[in-house]
Structures are given as structure tokens and as C-alpha cells.
Amino acid sequence: MAKRKRLGSGDELPHLPIHLIVVVFLVYTVYPLMWVVSVAFSGQQTLMFVNLPPDAGTLDRLRAIIPWPSHFSFANFTSVISDQPFLLWLLNSAIVAAATTVLGVFLATTSAYAFSRFRFPGRRAGLMSFLVSQMFPGVLMLIPLFIILVQWLGLGSSRIGLVLVYATTAIPFCVWMLKGYFDTIPRELEESALIDGASPATIFLRIILPLAKPAIAVTALFSFMTAWNEFILAATLMNEETLYTAPVGLKFFVGGFSEQWGYFAAGAIITAIPVVLLFMFLQRFLVSGLTAGAVKG
Amino acid sequence: MSEPATTLAAVPGAGPGASPGGGRDGRHVGRHVVRRVAIGLGVALLVALGLQLAAYQQAATAAARSQERREALVAARAVADVVSAAGDDSAAVTAAVDRFGSRLPAVERIRVIDLASLSLVASSQPDDGAPRRLGRDEKTLYDRGQLLRSNRESNVQEGLARKPLALLERGAGGRLDVAVPVSEDGGAIRGAVLLDAVPAVAVRPPAWWVPLVLLAAALGLLLAAAALFGPRRVLLNVLAAVLLVATVGAYGLLGAGRLASDRSDEAAAVGQRLADTLATARQVTAQPAALDPAAWDADLLGRPRGEIGAGGEVDPAGLERALSASRARLVKLVAAATTASLVLLLFIGLGGAAHLGSTLRKHREAYLYVAPAMLGMIVLVFFPFAYGITLSFTESNLYNTDKGITEIWVGVDNYVEILSDWKVFEHTEDGLLWRYQNFYWTLGFTILWTVSNVAFGVTVGLFLALLLNAKGLALKPIYRVLLILPWAVPNYITALIWRGMFHRQFGVINQVLALLGIQPVSWFEAPLTSFLAVLSTNGWLSFPFMMVVSLGALQSIPSDLYEAARVDGAGRWQQFRSVTLPSLKPALVPAIILSVIWTFNMFNIIYLTSKGEPAHATEILITEAYKIAFEQYRYGYAAAYSTVIFLILLVYGVWQNRVSRATEAVG
């Protein structure tokens, strides 16, 4: 956005219609978000912000669609935290996501380093196999994973099972991303360290890792978001209510026959805010990484 | 990176033409060839012969135990026949039990209990003080009698022999506790004979030195051949393979002979026991006709083995039948051991193992770094994938996952069931009826879903990008951030929000319609409205990606191009077509490819917003596969369904790869 010389000065579009059109789209974009915020702060469990009388006039009806609660209340937030096991579910999500991040970063940095710096038989095959694995549809993996984790390893309803699966599914993207970054670090740095008698392990820990901090941070955040946002595997594996992650718990509020939309909205806001902020920070890395040729479904 | 040179890796495999005495190098190479082949043969034989030895050891133990069991069962059934025939004559029962107790070898104690009176009728040990009521601590005896009775009753009810009519347990020190029923005239169970036997048959283990001698002989022959023909790689490997097969086969033949002789010894011993027992039984019973010695040597379900005649003589035909089953198992074992060891031999003998070892050693640093991630990928990605494909050829479901793959193998039946069902709709009295769970309906809906979503995303995204790209637009950063928001919100939350907004009674969308004077719509009760609902949901979260990609690409278009176009007299639309679109192509094509795959696999929106309603009409392929697996629990069928999805994606991937390469070539 540095240079502002695109269209010639004589070819300028009038700005007012642009603003009008963009605002129409802004309504489409922002309305659902405002809606969830209003439900959360309405203090009620229903989908409506105001209670409509049976003979509601146009003004009442208009009032019913404006996403602004008739009176503000933190009741949904306080009771979703204190009366519902939502805090526990958030904690589960946090534990799973943190463990996934640590394990995922460890697995991705070590192997990305090897793929970047060593030439060994199987290197190309390994890299290609990581790429190909991105084509496996999730559901095809879900059935055997369910049988392996639940019936063979006894890891159903366990955080360890979730962490293992999340960390490995995040590997290919992270490895490709980190390998690309490691490739840009000049080899001269390592060669001079090698002459000084440093071992490869020292080089990896003392030279490469500190230099690759930005890429590792992005990888870590990506792993974290993958684990934090994952719904279907957690919903399939976690049968005990105390072990639900936040996404499964949010579905629990409004799935089936329960209609606790207030709890859902408050919980959704609490769950989404960290990842929305993270995403805003990360999106430029994601766009360049994704369009560079990854095919992740 | 230190790369320790290894001697093995430095030696190229010598061809068959390498001369035995061709200088120092030749001798050096030759020693390696002979050593490798010898080690290969040794290791392979150790594995194959060791496996066989272990199997024979196990078979010998099993044979001894089986003989003990059969002898104990013969004795117990003989006593039961005599006791049954004696009826209520308790003096006769006592006398018979005493006689049997003193005559039967290896039998420690014989007790007879009566279920109706809860009493111990007779015992071969005077200390037991029979007859008397059963004590509290003897409840297990009663329970065993009761179990036999209920087993017989359920067998009679079902009309088949499914539950055992003899109980056999091995107690401490290998002691056998046998329980067989005592019947009344009508066949009803009145009591039980409980017989305790001590293990009396010695295990005759296979000789451990036989395989060692065979191994030494084979190695000796190999080394002799090496000395005779020189270190010729191919020749020696072939020779080693022949020696391996011959040795394993020879040991297998020995084992088969041993198996046959063991089996006939066992049958002869049991037959002898049966004859002895029959003689005793004839002496002690008043009704020799009531004895049924043909049923004594039977399995626990009461099915006669057919190896021994009523007088204790061995029936060769019956023995042969029993033998052939064991022999088939042995052949399978030997074949498996031979194949495995042959692979091992050739792997070592042809230098594969040395090569692998040296590669691993030379690059051990690299493999060490790759290993954790690779291990994780293999265990939790590649193996499950292969296992999923395998499952697709079975009828695996929730209830048979403990069974072996071969037991539930159905070949391509699942695929045929999915792909050959062309009836997307049927004609009924009510008119045309769509079958929403048909694969082709779901496939068609998935394609419609994908195409319309991507078209929506590209159109809206590109349109907004063009607008935001206007020079000097005020508030642009704010617009950009707000318009990206839907992409940032986790999509399961988006799905649930929209599910709420489309709620028939309280949803805000029907409130808006009411304001406009339109009747409320039941969004998820008709395929079309349900589709519109999920389309607007997914459109909401998917256009920002396209917008960001287009915006990035638009900003990289140099303004000179537009200048030049204007100089040529191009209007705005012409500029868009000849400058903007071609410049966007390199960024848009990968983004479209990506979003096709994303949308095709967009599980959460369908699963949580429309839930496939009405009646699976708005199900896409992967949500349908999920429901087959986790709502109908048909794992095998769902795996086949998912494999079909994978193949569709694969074909798409190959196709788009070709297309994007072609566009690159043209651009």
C-alpha cells in the first residue's frame, strides 16, 4: 500500500456510490456479529432481543431486528462461567491447544530443519508424502482414527488422543512453511560455526532456532488456532461432558433440543475473541502461505 | 555436517563376473559377498527354524494337555453313565464310585452330587463323609451342576449345541476339575459327577538340537559351495535360497511326521484308557446296556471326536480327518516362515541390509531429526489412511470391530452398492419422489454447493476488492478490517449463529420478512430454501478470502498498463477485461482451486446449519459419509464412501494441476 499511483487521475470513480455499496456489504458482514453480541448482552436465553407482543406494530417489529438489546446485562457471561461448566471446557481447549502447539512446533521445526539442511535418501519422498497427505479427506481419516484411538489405544474421551491427532495433522503445513523459511537463512552462518567446532545440535538450537523466531511464532499460532477451532474430531471423540472442548460445549448449548442461545452467544464471544485477534495478526502470512500452492481442505 | 565414511558403503556389490582371484580388491569384495550371504542364510534360518521350533514346542504341550483332558472326560463320562443307570440306588452309586476311584489312574477324587436334594451322594474319598448335604463352602460344586443344567435347557430350547455340556477347568498345579451331568431317563439333568485329575501326561518337547544341526549343515554346504565356485554373488544367493527352502521344508516334514505320530499316540492312549474304563464300568454296573462309550471321547459340547470306536480301537479314517486340519495349519505356518525368511535372506545377502545400515549411519543426524514427525505421520496419518482404504472392502460396523479383517471381507460390495444405485428418484402414487440419500443426488448437490459458493465468493470478493482499490478512498483500512472479520470467526460459530438467525419462529430473518409483510419461511423444511440458507452462511465466511487475494493482486498491477490501455482508447470495461483480469489470474487461479477444495469439504456449515435437512436433501458428500459412520455405525460402507470422495478429489487435483500448468504456459 506504499505507492498510491494506480488509476490515472482522469479516470477516478466517484467515491460516494462506492461508500454506499460497501456499506451495504458491511451490513451483511457485521450484522450476524452484532446479532450474537446483542443476544449475549440481552441477558436472555431466547433468540429475540425484545419480547414482541402479539399485536406488534411496525415500530416494534423494527425494534426486534435492530441488533441492540433493550437493556444491557452481563447475566449471560457471569452465569455461563459460574453456572455452566463452560470454564472447564475453555480450560480443556486451552490445555489441548497449548499441548498441540508445543508438540506441533517441536515436530515441525526438527523435521523442517532436516528437510532444509540435510540431503538424504527419502528426502524428496518425505516432503512429497507430506504434501499428498493434505489430500486425504478428513472423514476418511476420522473412521480409522476413531477405531485406532478409541478401540485399540483406549484414548477415546482423552485429551492426549486429541493432542496427538491435532499435532500430526498440523505437521505438513508447518513443515513446508518452516522449511521455506529455513531455506532463506544463509548457510555461511552454520559453516562458520561448524569450523568453530559446533555440533549440528548446537547449530540447530543456537543459530537456526533464534533466527527463525518469526516463522516459528507463526507456526505456533497456526497450530494453536487449529486445535482451538477444531470441532468435529473433538465432538466425535469426547463423550464425557467434563472433557468437552469449547467448540463441543458451544454446540451442546444449542444442539439437539436445548436452545440456550444466551449461553451460546456469551460463550462464542469468549471463545472467538482470542482467535479473531490472532487471525487478524496472522492473515497476511496465511494468504501468502496458502496461495503458494498448499491444498488443504 | 560430519559424514563418517563407512567401509561397507564404499564396497560396491560384486557382480557375478568378479573373478575369485582378481587381485587384492577382488578378494576383498569376495570376502564381503560370502560373509553377507552366510550371515543372511544364518539369520534367515534362525528366524524360520526358531519360529517352527517354538510352534512345535507349543504343539507338544498342547497335545499333552489335550490327552489329559480327553482321558479325564472319558473317565468322568463313564462314571456319569454308571451313576445315571443306577438311578436312586445310592448304595450302588457309592460302590461304583469307590471302585472307579481305586481303578482309574491319575484320578484324585470323584464326587457325585444331587441338585434336587443339594447333597453329596458319594465320594471316592472316605474323608468327605458322603452321603450328606452340601456345605456352605461347597456352593461352587452346586453352581457347576446348576450351570450344566441351564446350559442343557438353553441348548434344548434353541435346538442346537451351543453351550458346553461338560465343564473343564485347570486349577493350581495343572489339576483338572471336570464336571459332567448325571441325567434322568428323560434326559433332564439331576446331578453331576465332579472329577479331579492330576496331570499325568508328560510333555515330549521337540529336540532342540535338530534345527541346530540343520542350520550347521546348511551353512556348511553354503561355505563349501563358496570355496568351490568362488564368491559369486548371484550364484551364492540362489544357492542360499535353495538351501533355506530345503532346510525349512525338511524341518517342516520332520515336524509333520512328529505331529502325525503324536496324534496317533494320543488317540491310542485315549483309546486304551477308554477300553480300561469300559471294562471297569461293565463290572460295577447292573445295566451294561446303559453305557454309551461312543460318546465318552467327545468335546465339551458333546460332539464325538470320531477318532476312537466304542471299544477303544482307533479309527484311522477319523484320525486322518483330525490330522489333516492340523496339517493344513502347519503348512500355512511353514509357508509363512519360509516367505519371511527368504525376504530376510535376500535383503541381507544381496547387500540391502548393509546398504540400509550404512545409509542410516551416514545420515543418522538427518533421520534423527525427521524421525519424530515421520513417526507421528505414519502412525496417525498414513497408517489410518491405508487402514481406512482396507476397511472400505469390509462390512465393518460398531459390533464387529474385534473381528479379523478377513472375517468381514466383502470385496468391492460397498463400492458396487454406492455407485450402481442410479435411482435418484422414483415414481410413486404421490408423484415424483427424490431419493436424497442416493449417492448421485448427494454428489450433484455437492457440485452445485461448491460451484455456487465459489462463484459467489469470487464475484463478491473481486467486486469489493475493485471498490476498495479506488484511489484515495476514505475509511479504507476500517472497511478492510470489518470485511475480513467473517473469515476470522471460527466457522463452527458462524454456522451456529446463522442456524439461529434462520430459526423459523424467533429467527431474525423471518422477523425482517414479517416487517416486509412476507409470511415466515420454514427455511430448513424444503431443499431450495435450505440450500439458500447454507449458501448465504458459507458465502458470508468465504468472500473475504477472495477479497484479500484480489486486493493484493490489484495493488501489484503497475499503473503504466492502464495508462497504455487508455492511450489506446480503451474504456473502463475494456481496461478491466484486458488489463485487470489477466493480471489477477496468477493470484486468483490458485485461490479458486483452494476454495473449491475448501468448499467441497466444508463440513461444519452443512453439519451444523442445515444438518442435511430436509431428509438428507442438503447433505454434501463428507457430511453424508460422517453420518453413515457415526449415526448408522456402518464403518466399512462409510470408508468406501470416503474413498470415493478421495478419488473424486484426486481426479480434480490432477485435472487442476494440468489446467493451471496450461494457463501458466499460456500466460
What features would you highlight for this structure?
heterodimer, A: 297 residues, mainly alpha, MetI-like fold, 13 helices, globular, disordered C terminus, B: 667 residues, Beta-Lactamase, 6-stranded antiparallel beta sheet, two-stranded antiparallel ribbon, 65% helix, disordered N terminus
What does this structure look like?
The complex is a heterodimer of chains A (297) and B (667). With 297 residues, chain A is mainly α. Chain A folds into two domains: 17-52 and 60-73, no CATH class; 94-291, MetI-like fold (Orthogonal Bundle), CATH 1.10.3720.10. Chain A is built from 13 helices and no strands. Chain A has helices spanning 15-42, 58-65, 75-82, 86-117, 123-133, 138-152, 159-184, 187-195, 200-211, 213-229, 232-237, 246-254, 261-291. Chain B has a six-stranded antiparallel beta sheet, with helices on both faces. By secondary structure, chain B is α+β, with helices and mostly antiparallel strands. In chain B, helix 2 (23-86) packs antiparallel against helix 5 and helix 16 packs across helix 17. Residues 1-24 of chain B have low confidence and may be disordered. Chain B is elongated, with a radius of gyration of 40 Å. Among the domains of chain B are: 48-204 and 257-355, Beta-Lactamase; 448-601, MetI-like fold, CATH 1.10.3720.10. Chain B starts with 6 loop residues before the first helix and ends with a helix. The interface between A and B is large, with 105 and 107 residues.
